[in-house]
Amino acid sequence: MSRRPTPPAALPFGARAIDRRRFLGSAMAAALVSSLSRPEAAVSQTNDSAPGLPSLLLPHPSGAQVRLYLQGAHVASWQRADGEEVLFMSRDSAYTPGVPIRGGIPLVFPQFATLGPLPNHGILRTIPWAVTATGQEPGGAVFALLERRDDEATRKVWPHSYHATYRVSLDDDLSTTLTVTNTGREAFSFQSSLHTYLRVDDVRRVTVEGLQGARYLDRAPTATDGVQRDAALTIERETDRIYVATPGVVRVVGTKAGRSVVVEKDGFADTVVWNPWIDKARALADFGDDEYPQMVCIEPANIVAPVRLAPGATWRGTQRLRVT
Ligand code: TA6
User: Fold this and answer.
1) CA 312 to ligand 1 center in whole angstroms
2) Residue whose CA is closest, atom 13 of ligand 1?
3) Is 79 exposed, middle or buried (0-12, 13-18, 19+ CB in 10 A)?
4) CB atoms within 10 A of CB 189
């Protein structure tokens, strides 16, 4: 399988030294620099090996950092203060403008997967977003705020006007909040999810808790819909389930020895659990055949009951990831 160029590693933490001439040369850089409210929350831009796919670092004084691509406001990495990487990124991911990035937290809007006529998982994850602010919150979290509006190209694919914002906030935890405002004259409905790829040492040793009693729609081949009877879901085959109207907290136990990741959601009714397992991993060109044990997707989502947004109304969906 052809290896795609993987981007240079994020700037070593604390390495804010960047080629300011190059950095300041771009209009976006000017926006970034002008939006900085406090130097210590400075955001450094790292242009990956694929020109035109800029990413930025959001360092926290603790030593933790988040790296996100402006394409799709795509969080690709969350390194905790101890250096632990919490999110999974495939070594075979593309870093090409307009091509989905495999891993991190893809934004899904206004369609989930192929549950409609739009491109898989919709339009937001493959288009460039603008950074509108960065800084530090009174409680000490550092944040980046990005936004995206409709344009002629998006309206050709999905004929509605919207203003989307995405806030990434890092302290001990990582919170990401997507808002969508209907800026048009007609109501529209949408599905959405924060398609979070959690990194695990071995998915066969992981249990997913918090879904007991929930009904699920099973999208894996030959699988059938059902109800989660056991308190702990184990991953032993291709798993592609939409759990309907789930509680606000899911715990992924055993991401590393003695570690769990808690996924809290608000504004999202459903939870998707996905692991491609062997055959689907082989079928994905941007996913290593041997990578399926290293990840599980836990996705706060609105799928079964799409959100209906009246003109001028705003929807907000948030997830908070916490390592315990
Ligand atoms: O969220 C699960 C899912 O819908 C799977 O069916 C699989 O297609 C996954 O999303 C990845 O989708 P992508 O378009 O990123 O390949």
Assistant:
1) 31
2) 120
3) buried
4) 12
Tokens of 160: 């509605």
Q: Which of 108, 109, 121, 270 to mutate to test the pocket of ligand 1 (most atoms within 8 A of CB)?
A: 121
Cα 174 to Cα 78: distance, rounded to the nearest angstrom: 8
CA-100 nearest atom, ligand 1: 15
From 71, 126, 195, mutation site for ligand 1 pocket: most ligand atoms within 8 A of C-beta: 195
Nearest by Cα to 250 from 218, 283, 212: 212
pLDDT tens sequence across 227-252: 999 999 999 999 999 999 999 999 99
Q: What is the pLDDT of residues 272-322, one digit of tens each?
A: 999 999 999 999 999 999 999 999 999 999 999 999 999 999 999 999 999
* Phi/psi of residue 150, nearest 5 degrees: -65, 155
Q: What is the DSSP letter of 231?
A: S
